[in-house]
Amino acid sequence: MDQYPPATRNITAAPSAEKSSQLLLREYPHRAIAIATPSHALIFRYSPTTSEAIANGSLASVSSARPRAAGDSPVSKCMVEFSPVSKQLLSDFRPLTPRPIYGTLGLISINQDVFLCVITQALRVATLRPGETVEKIASVDFFCLNSAEYDNVISLNAYDGELSDSASTYGQSLGRRDGEIEYPYQELQKLLSNGSFYYSTDFDLTNRLQDRPIDSDTFDIDNFDEAFLWNYFMISPLVRFRSRLLAHERDALDASRILTSAIRGFCLTMTIPQSAAPLRDSKSGLPSFLTVISRLSCKRAGTRFNSRGIDDDGHVANFVETETIYWSPSGVLFSYAQVRGSVPVFWEQTPGLIPGQQKITVTRSADGTQPAFDKHFEDLEQSYGAVHIVNLLSATKPGEAELTQLFHYGLQHCSLCRVDEKESSDHALLRETDYDFHAETKAAGYEAAREIRRYIEHSADGFAYYLAELTDDMVETNEPTGHQRMVVVLEQEGVFRTNCLDCLDRTNLIQTLISQMAVEAFLNHRGEYAASDFWMRHSTLWADNGDALSRIYAGTGALKSSFTRHGKMSLAGAFADARKSATRLYINNFADKARQNTIDMLLGRLVGQAPVHLFDPINDFITLELSKRSSEYSSTENINIWVGTFNLNGRTNGIDEDLSPWICPRELGSAQPEIMAVGFQEIVELSAQQIMNSDPTRKQLWERAIKKTLNNRAKQIGGEKYVLLRSGQLVGAALCIFVKASSLPKIKNVEGSVKKTGMSGIAGNKGAVAIRMEYANTQLCFVTAHLAAGFANYDERNKDYATIHHGLRFQRNRGIDDHDTVIWLGDFNYRIGLSHERVMDLLQRQDLEKLYENDQLNLQMVAGLSFPYYSEARITFMPTYKFDVGTDRYDTSEKARIPAWTDRILRKGTNIRQSSYNCAPLRFSDHRPVFATFQCTVNIVNEALREQISRGLYERRKAEVGHTATDLLIDESEDDEDLIGYDPIEPGLPPASSDRQRWWLDNGKMAKSTVGPPQPTNGNRENTTRVLNPYRPSNPFALTEEPDWVAVPRSNSRLSSFSSISSSPYEHINHSTLLSTSAASNSSPRKLPPPFDPATLPAKVGQINLLDEQAISQRSEPPPPPPPPPRRQTVTSIVQPSSPTSVSTQPTLRSFKHAMPQQESRAISSSSPTSNKSKAPPPVARKPVHLKSTSPTTSPSLPETNSFGSPIDPRTPKPLIPRKTSTTVSNLTSKLEASRSNTLTGGALKPTSAPSYQDPVAANTGVLGSATPSNRVSLPGLGSAERKPALPLRPQQQYTQPSESELKRSVVDLLGGDDGAEMNGWETLKPS
Q1: pLDDT per residue over 607-651, tens digit each?
Q2: Are 1054 and 1231 in contact (CB under 8 A)?
Q3: Is 77 helix (H, G, I), strand (E, B) or coil?
Q4: Which of 34, 174, 494, 821 could bond 463 through an S-S bridge, CB–CB 3.0 to 4.6 Å?
């Protein structure tokens, strides 16, 4: 079985010490794992109760616990904290593993356990240029955040036997002791340790050189290309966490090199000694580096027969981007990218043990395939530009021929190939070459494959390549000489997409030839050539690349690699290919399926897999607070911008002319704009030979001329020198940005991009170049464009604008509109829609307004068909096209072009104001250069002040809650921990609370009330005091007229202590039990809030309030009536169920509320003495409010009367309520009735006449089924139709009036009986 090639080429020892960190563990009081560098620590702590809470539904309403489909596993949740290292922070930690770790691949949840995956062994395999290295992952390990079960597992050792079998893609060696159980991450560990994964802590390895910043010291971790980031599923929670950090913390996290981006594929550097290097640097004597990087897409990842064709998202199997990079110590950096991928139709192939008999099956019709086909090529066009397909499938093999036929059908119906009748075929962005590899090489051998050059060289010239060079700008600004900058000179504008059936063997051979063509073109432009020694190294790299990619997809090295490596096919190579074919058959049939599952687990595609949820409460709080205080640390500043555009008509004779009338017009005065944006069109002549030549030398000549003009003026006025920030070129269109040297520190994230609107030929010169930047904290974008020519082609120009606007993309998929300020400049080619004679007549009269009314761009913008939302200043200059060269005469040739304002400058943004718009009298082209000046307001953030505020907030918050991941909630309660980091369930609501943490209290502090009773105004301080009104509803938002406070008498009597709770003259309140009040009711009840469970209220005030809640808003107390018969006694008495805090032993009747109207629930009470063990009566419905009365649970029995004073039949059944009697109450009642009744009103209620009552005895007759008299009111829900079980009878007790002597003898004890018996319940006091 193939092993990976011995790692001898440019492979050094493990990464340097500064790229490593330590793994630490703390086991008590909560398990936590820390990744510690010398300066910072990233600490993880698992929340053990979260998954359970989500699983049982208790967190179902929390939005952060995202909804899951049936069968999904719960979201694993971890706290994370990134802090500077301190002794206190890591005092409880110990090393988890003695060896250093070299990176973190992320977090993954397997079988309810959360694992941290780290790189434990790595080998350096590539150096793209000094400071940018790539390491191969040799071994990874997994550490569990929530369990110590896996802490002592023996890890795979990849150093055994030159990466051992475990390094083989299909190695089956155990890595652990025989007989040891398999751990849940074992297969994942084998996959990641097999030598096919690479990472870099210096730069973003997932993006090609052209798509990332040229500055080698920047590492923008959130610009990962997800398509090539194989640990995206595991690292994305950490990347999201990083995005929430403050700027300085983000920088510290990036500098710590803890987070790692891993690709799969191939990466290797060959060192080219100076003697063999095509570009030599005699000064340094350093060698050159030639590197090949292949990035395998993870979007449709899988093994050979498990992953074929395309999916509905437009991703194809075995899609690989391969980049050839050459760095020379002379300061030149070259890059060329190409792609391979499966045939983009829906097809499958069954594995079989007979070579050539694996049947190809097309699984979807051609029309059904078209949407996915279009999406695939639209994505390619957006990422790379124009696409040239090289199809190597056989025309004679039936299966391959069918795929080619479907491929052709898709191309014919693809929007990128479709052109209108007006458009030339050159506008197509898709081109195909069919090259039957086997037929072409059958006779002459693989050497014949070199003939493919003549089919693709036209496109190869048009696509160009990426080139960056060192610039000496900084030397002129008195900077140290070591601070030279790399500047992008040229960008690649298209890509070759090569495919065969597997995209392995034939594809790799052809891609090697295309790479060689690009390198040759690069050297030819510089007048250099490469020796055979250089090309041998190039071939070896590509052969190793083919082997590596083949091993990943098919299980063995590539076939035909002998030819790729040596340039000829030997007999040994043929035997090696036969052996590889046989090995592939075995592996594809028996080993691939299990490994497909492992790949899917790594990518998070298994059913029910969810990423780990990370949160950091402290940083989330600080970010929110900082956004509220942004005005404290941000300000604005006005900068000046000069923008100019010039169609050079391919001329170079103006380079030596004085450009100051254009570059330094009098409108500028003595000011020096911070930014100078210069756009050129037709830098090269529009000839068939020149148009495909992307040689940047012409652009560089103009850059020097402009810079010379700028700095000469700076010398004259004693100003600052200018620096070339960045330039870009699309064949004939170029854009150069110069900035003042003092402005350079304020500028960051400078990026460039190009967008073609045609493939080649004349149309290849049309398109756009864009450069974007951030000046302070404002995003600026400059776009120079050359749109389609022709008087009547305004529709095509509109389409060109739309293509550029939608298709031009910067890093992070940022578009033109994703900027605060956008300026377009260039030759837009819109004409004036009048005849030549009419235009010339208006020009003689200088009637510019009439001309502008017929300007095509003006009309298209007004109609919304082009440049929507852009503005243009008023044009006050003559048309800038077309002149006789060297004169001010408009075109006098036979074509007699109509003069027009083809060269324009447009703007968009709320923060920009235009101050001038004019043309300059430079006559060496048939166009006149145009310029505009702007004043732009940029937002400036004082990072030092922001940092200061941030640190203050951090320290304050840290002091309040401690270290979230290490010290938070070290007690046993885990309830609140589950809620930390959760968002509100709806926008505008506070976050979730718990028993210990409440959003309305700060950090769990006890509630404090500073409200005090109002002071009496009548000066009666000695006799009364103010207390909370017990009749006030417990719901503070309920409608009520009850006052908040009531006045009660201040007296030496023991009874006065109860007036703070009750204001009824008939109530004596015992604090230890429930209340049944006998207060009079009014016939117009107060509006009540909805019913609720009284058992949830506090025992004393809350329950009392509930019992008295029927008190009338205009409450009136009657004067004490004559003694017997007491009018207010009714046939039934009501009792409230006991609260949990009551000491009463009577049963609670909780089921009333289901059968009662919307009033307060009451229970029927008995006044006969019975045992405490008696059963509770069945529930009985409540009365209407106006019939309510209360009677004691333990009061002495009184003769029962109806509302007319007549005695009631003692045989009437009553509910039996257990209670304990007291002999004290009758005496107390008489005494109260005789002397104290009027003093218990609390001073808050006025006596009025007593209302009349109807007899509520109808409730009982209704229960027994008897007819309800017309003058009685039956209880709701208990009419004669409803039969209820008869209630047990009770003995009737006779009421005896106590004598005067008994009243005098009795000792009033409110809390207990005279005989020491306990009193259970509220006692009702009767008037004497």
Answers
A1: 778 888 887 777 778 888 888 888 899 999 999 999 999 999 888
A2: no
A3: strand
A4: 494
1000 — pLDDT class (breaks 50, 70, 90): low
Half-sphere exposure of 852 (CA within 13 A, CB side): 14
pLDDT digits (tens, 9 = 90+) for 203-231: 889 999 998 888 756 666 777 888 999 99
Percentages helix, strand, coil for the chain, rounded to the nearest 5?
Answer: 25, 20, 50
Q: What tokens appear for 1061 in the block?
A: 């709770």
Residue 1247 is classified by DSSP as B
The runs of H, that is alpha helices, within 823-899 are 836-844, 848-853, 856-862
H helices of 629-696, in order, are: 630-633, 660-663, 688-691
Instruction: Write down the H helix ranges in 468-616.
Output: 473-476, 505-525, 532-553, 561-566, 571-590, 592-602
pLDDT for res 1204: 45
Report the number of secondary-structure helices (H) and strands (E) in the chain.
28, 38
Q: 71-101 burial by CB neighbour count: b if 16+ within 10 A, else e?
A: eebbbbbbbbbbbeeeeebbeebeebbeebb
* Type of residue found at 1227: N
Question: From residue 334, how far is each of 521, 578, 613, 983 by CA, in Å?
Answer: 11, 37, 41, 48
- C-alpha neighbours within 13 Å on the C-beta side of residue 1121: 17
pLDDT digits (tens, 9 = 90+) for 47-105: 754 444 444 444 443 333 333 333 445 677 788 889 899 888 888 899 998 889 999 99
SS3 label, residue 679: strand
Task: In whole angstroms, give the CA distance from residue 536 to residue 566.
Answer: 8
Q: According to DSSP H, which parts of 229-283 are helical?
A: 232-244, 247-256
Question: In angstroms, rounded to a whole number, what is the distance separating the alpha carbons of residues 162 and 708?
Answer: 58
Q: Which two tokens stand for residue 810?
A: 């910067």
Secondary structure of residue 1222 in the 3-state scheme: coil
pLDDT of residue 244: 80
Q: What is the largest CA-CA distance in the chain?
A: 140
Distances in whole angstroms, Cα of residue 57 to Cα of each of 48, 66, 67, 76, 352: 15, 12, 11, 15, 48
The alpha carbon of 144 is separated from its chain's Cα centroid by a whole number of angstroms, namely: 26
Q: How far apart are the first and last CA of the chain?
A: 111
Q: Which two tokens stand for residue 1135?
A: 């009792």
Does the pTM of the predicted model rise above 0.85? no
Say how far apart CA 982 and CA 1003 lie, in whole Å: 16
CA distance 1305 to 1114: 40
Say if residues 557 and 2 touch (Cβ distance below 8 Å).
yes
> Cis omega before residue 1090 (within 30°)?
no
Which residues are CB-neighbours of 274 under 8 A, at least 6 positions away? Answer: 280, 281, 285, 286, 287, 288
Coil vs helix vs strand at 191? helix
Count of CA atoms in the C-beta half-sphere (13 A) of 178: 0
Q: Which residue, among 774, 719, 734, has the nearest Cα to 750 in the 3D structure?
A: 774
The band of 439, judged by pLDDT with boundaries at 50, 70 and 90, is confident
Find, among 1137, 1136, 1158, 1019, the residue nearest to 1076 by Cα: 1136
Element (H, E) at 368: helix 366-384
Q: Please give the single-letter amino acid code of residue 100.
A: P
Chain centroid offset of residue 1159 CA: 50
Closest CA to 203 of 188, 191, 187, 214: 214
Measured distance CA(212)–CA(1018) in Å, rounded: 82
Q: Where are the alpha helices (DSSP H) in 559-680?
A: 561-566, 571-590, 592-602, 617-628, 630-633, 660-663
CA distance 784 to 807: 14
